[in-house]
Write a structure and sequence with these properties.
Arc Repressor Mutant, subunit A, alpha+beta, Glutaredoxin, four-stranded mixed β-sheet, elongated, binds FE2/S2 (inorganic) cluster
């Protein structure tokens, strides 16, 4: 871990105020913030691990658990809900064998249910990473997953 993070951390050595940008860069590199990374960050910046955890857990953008290679989000906002969002979510859960909030064992997919994406005209909506798929059906959802 030290070798991997050294190039990212080196410019910030001892700069306590750089904690948030450092957390962002490390998460960009690793996809999440594992325990060893938190220790390294604390060591480099000269702060305690609990301070790093305290700051990182305050912001929703930081994750302490490894995420899947692809993030699937199924909208459960009002427009999507009335047009079948719950059925889409169930189909995706069945297909992946996980519940929302979980990651598949092979770390290929993480699944989340979310509120409105602001694409209500396309409801029901499913999003894979940054790609929005509208007017979703259970069959289309299965087909999209297969493509990944
Ligand atoms: S409710 Fe799903 S995009 Fe708005």
């Amino acid at each position: 871990m030290r070798e991997r993070l050294s190039p990212i951390l080196a410019p910030y050595r001892g700069q306590r105020g750089a904690l948030i940008p450092v957390l962002q860069k490390v998460q960009e590199e690793l996809g999440y913030l594992p325990e060893e990374a938190v220790s390294e960050i604390a060591y480099f910046l000269g702060v305690s691990e609990s301070e790093v955890y305290g700051v990182a857990s305050f912001y929703a953008q930081f994750r302490f658990i490894r995420q899947g290679e692809h993030t699937i989000k199924v909208c459960q906002g009002t427009a999507c809900h009335v047009r079948g969002g719950p059925r889409i979510l169930e189909a995706v859960e069945r297909e992946l064998g996980i519940q929302s909030g979980e990651t598949t064992e092979d770390y290929k997919f993480s699944l989340a249910r979310v509120a409105c994406f602001g694409s209500c005209a396309l409801a029901p909506v499913l999003v894979v990473d940054k790609t929005v798929y509208g007017r979703m059906t259970t069959a289309k959802a299965r087909k999209i997953l297969a493509e990944y």
